[in-house]
Design brief:
By secondary structure, the protein is an alpha/beta fold. Helices cover 46% and strands 14% of the residues. It has a 7-stranded mixed beta sheet, sandwiched between helices. The longest helix has 23 residues, at 58-80.
């Protein structure tokens, strides 16, 4: 992503969440604001039935809505234990802060300034003013640190938090991913939790999965946001323990399907080598 253009993959993820609201029943992830925040033109494209970017394909859509559901399930449990902060790294067009009722955490949305400026336009067009518990935390990682951005936004490093880092790590180098995980392991209050997703190396996929992934890779590369990192699950778990994470739960496609999609008969099912990793500091 360049310095002035918002993330196209963030728009794509939001389109998948919106498509889920229109195409799938029962809903795995309820987000009635998803069709609004993608904009009227994009919403009309979805409702027209023209599948111009593969949003009707159930495999990727299933993974995107399952990771969103998992993040909010983790947050719900943490809120019940007294956690009061939620950080969305690479928030994109996430709508959690606008949907949450009852026990509300303070929500910090960390993203590139260009993407956040674009999101504010989408929010204005949708008539969705930011709630009082919400904080935009723009961070240009080429010029400042995550610590500086969170500190400026008023994040309390002395209190635990849940961090959701979804749809981001494949577009970063392995070194950048390790640096962010190291920061979270050492600077977050013990008892904090993080959820992030990652992709396995291509050679670990079966031929059909590899073909689908190759098509997706070509699409995001054309959008200017190529995949840059892949992780082997065992090695990643060892690295996380070395960084100081105390517990690790790695959910691959079969585990996510068993947790969220086992009883469905509509074809919504995760395929491929995507993982969601839940870790505790």
């Amino acid at each position: 992503m360049d310095a002035i253009r918002p993330s196209r993959t963030a728009q794509g993820a939001a389109m998948h969440r919106a498509a889920h609201q229109l195409l799938d029943r029962p809903l795995l992830f309820t987000d009635p604001l998803a069709p609004r925040i993608i904009g009227a033109e994009a919403d009309a494209e979805l409702r027209s039935g023209r599948d111009w970017h593969g949003f009707a394909a159930p495999g990727l859509r299933a993974f995107i809505v399952a990771r969103s559901r998992l993040a909010e399930d983790i947050l719900c449990g943490a809120l019940a234990r007294g956690t009061g902060q939620y950080v969305l790294l690479g928030a994109g067009l996430d709508t959690y802060a606008w949907r949450r009722n009852g026990n509300r955490p303070r929500v910090f949305e960390v993203d590139h300034p260009a993407t956040q400026a674009w999101k504010k336009i989408r929010l204005d067009e949708a008539g969705m003013p930011a709630p009082a518990n919400h904080v935009f935390a723009p961070v240009d990682f080429e010029n400042e640190s995550l610590f500086a951005g969170l500190e400026r936004a008023g994040f309390d490093f002395g209190s635990p938090a849940v961090v959701a880092w979804l749809g981001v790590t494949p577009y970063l180098t392995a070194e950048a991913v390790a640096a962010t995980l190291g920061f979270l392991a050492t600077r977050l209050k013990p008892g904090s939790e993080i959820l992030f997703d990652y992709a396995e190396p291509l050679q670990r996929h079966d031929p059909a999965q590899a073909a689908r992934f190759a098509a997706l890779s070509e699409r995001v590369a054309r959008a200017g946001e190529p995949f840059r990192s892949f992780f082997e699950p065992g090695g990643l778990a060892r690295d996380l323990r070395a960084l100081g994470f105390s517990q690790i739960c790695d959910l691959d496609a079969p585990a996510l399907n068993a947790r969220y999609l086992a009883s469905r008969n509509d074809g919504l099912r995760i395929v491929g080598g995507g993982h969601c990793l839940h870790a505790w500091t």
